[in-house]
Amino acid sequence: MEYVLIATGLGKRYREFKALDGLTMKVPKGAIYGLVGRNGAGKTTLIRLICGLQEPTSGDYRLYGTPGRSKDIARARRRMGISF
């Protein structure tokens, strides 16, 4: 199966606050995903990491097969659409 997003142990910390703690998920190609959760659950943080607005403090992700820390990630990001 081909995946659009693969996140493995993705985390983001702001000093002592964990905004995202060890997220692991796979989004298959052709799927439509919505993020639902309480305030502070990490929904916006996840989107910011994938869009390149912030850097993860732990873990990694692949977008359309391109690693998040690759120099080619900007090309992969052009393929996605985000709505807040």
Describe what you observe in this structure:
It is a single chain. It is built from 2 helices and 4 strands. It has a 4-stranded antiparallel β-sheet with strand order 2-1-3-4. Strand 3 and strand 4 form a beta hairpin. The model has no long low-confidence stretch (mean pLDDT 93). The protein is globular and about 35 Å long. It has one domain (3-77): 3-Layer(aba) Sandwich (Rossmann fold), CATH 3.40.50. 17% of the residues are buried. It has 84 residues and is α+β, with helices and mostly antiparallel strands. The chain has helices at residues 43-51, 73-77, and strands at 3-14, 17-28, 58-63, 66-67.
CATH class: Alpha Beta
Mean residue pLDDT: 93
Instruction: Outline the biggest β-sheet.
Output: 4 strands, antiparallel
Global shape? globular
Head-to-tail CA distance between termini: 28 Å
CATH level-3 fold name: Rossmann fold
Indicate the CATH architecture: 3-Layer(aba) Sandwich
Strand order of the largest sheet: 2-1-3-4
Give the beta-strand count: 4
Number of domains: 1
CATH superfamily: P-loop containing nucleotide triphosphate hydrolases
State which percent range the strand residues make up: 35-45%
Structural class: alpha+beta
Helix content percent band: 10-25%
What's the helix count? 2
Cα gyration radius (Å): 12 Å
What sequence of helices (H) and strands (E) makes up the elements? EEHEEH
Give the low-confidence spans: none
Describe the structure in brief.
With 84 residues, the protein is α+β, with helices and mostly antiparallel strands. It has helices spanning 43-51, 73-77; strands spanning 3-14, 17-28, 58-63, 66-67. The chain is globular and about 35 Å long.
